[in-house]
Amino acid sequence: MLAINDSNFEEMVINSQIPVLLDFWAPWCGPCRMISPIVEELSKEYEGKWLIAKCNVDESTDIPMKFGIRNIPTLLFFKGGVMKEKMVGSTTKAAIVAKMNSIE
């Protein structure tokens, strides 16, 4: 799975030709570990249709600050370089897929 950080965010997310799902997480976060397998599953299922990536908030501080990330996990959905939707907290695969489908 692609790791997004402060140095590659613009290139990989803002300039992406396909929609992007960006998972903000940290290794010490229990709910993050709960949804991580779902995000990884989705990255395989939607390969080529969506760019699904993770941003470790302990390693990258500019991106979370820019988007006001105060709680993790937080999922941001981008299309055309613009954030379209946001989901905060642990959630289900069905809820994530529904949000993705509403953006495509």
From TrEMBL:
GO biological process: cell redox homeostasis
S-S bridge residues: C29-C32
Keywords, ordered alphabetically: Disulfide bond, Electron transport, Redox-active center, Transport
Any Pfam family the entry gives: Thioredoxin
Marked site positions, Contributes to redox potential value: G30, P31
Domain Thioredoxin: 1-104
Active site: C29, C32
GO molecular function annotations of the record: protein-disulfide reductase activity
Site (described: Deprotonates C-terminal active site Cys): D23
Cellular component terms (Gene Ontology): cytosol
SUPFAM superfamilies the record matches: Thioredoxin-like
Cross-referenced PANTHER family: GEO12009P1 (PTHR45663:SF11)
NCBIfam families (alphabetical): thioredoxin
Family: Belongs to the thioredoxin family.
Protein name: Thioredoxin
Gene it is expressed from: trxA
